[in-house]
Amino acid sequence: MDITLNVNGRPEQFSAQPNELLVERLRDGLGLTGTKVGCDTGQCGSCVVRLDGRSVKSCLVLTASAAGSDVATIEGVTVPGGELTGLQEALRQEHGTQCGFCTPGMVMALGELVDTTAGGEAPTEPEIREWLTGNLCRCTGYHSVVRGVQRACAAARAEAPAALAETPAGTSAPSAVGQEA
Q1: Residue 63's closest CA among 47, 45, 39, 46?
Q2: Which among 68, 76, 82, 30 has a CA at the least distance from the CA of 49?
């Protein structure tokens, strides 16, 4: 079946089998190997991508069901100039990454949390831990990841009023952990 996806801001057209998983298309078909395969059962979160702005486990999504959607992978998380995003930098500063295998999935999932709280109230530690329930990490013990998210959310909140003031009416403000469309 013929499929069109908008992946990291680029249109992609290809033929897919009805049972092809999105993670397979991203890694094997498009060479976007930052999306990891850990468990193939939706338990570990290493395959998290954003599908139409929402974090999903790509090992549980059929490519055909994503047809016509916007897909953002870790390769599409960029800041002008190639620097780390606010969340990536906060995780680095708080030692929230060790082996790095889970990091792409965490950045994709937690980036949604940071984005949704940028202009509002910071998530509590229990809320952050609840958000992390779908992402397994064998190295960090999650404490440093939670601190990194708290740091990223604080930075995003500090930047949000300035960004909102500069944004023309009727458009949305960029976040500190923005995605390229």
Answers
A1: 47
A2: 76
Q: CA 157 to CA 6: how far, in whole Å?
A: 29
pLDDT, averaged in runs of 10, over the chain (181 residues):
96 97 98 94 95 96 98 91 92 92 94 86 92 90 94 86 48 34 30
What pLDDT does residue 122 have?
86
pLDDT for position 140: 85
pTM, full prediction: 0.83
Tokens of 149: 């998210």
pLDDT at position 51 is 98
Nearest-angstrom CA–CA distance, 148 and 95: 8
Please say whether the beta carbons of 45 and 135 come within 8 A. Answer: yes
The answer to whether 64 and 76 are in contact (CB under 8 A) is no
Q: How far apart are CA 61 and CA 84, in angstroms?
A: 28
pLDDT of residue 170: 40
Cα distance from N-terminal residue to C-terminal residue, the chain: 25
In Å, how far are 41, 63, 99 from 13, measured between CA atoms?
Answer: 27, 12, 34
Backbone angles phi, psi at 90, to 5 degrees: -65, -40
Distance from C-alpha of 23 to C-alpha of 41, rounded to nearest angstrom? 12
One-letter amino acid at 91 equals L
Which residue's structure tokens are 């390769």? 75
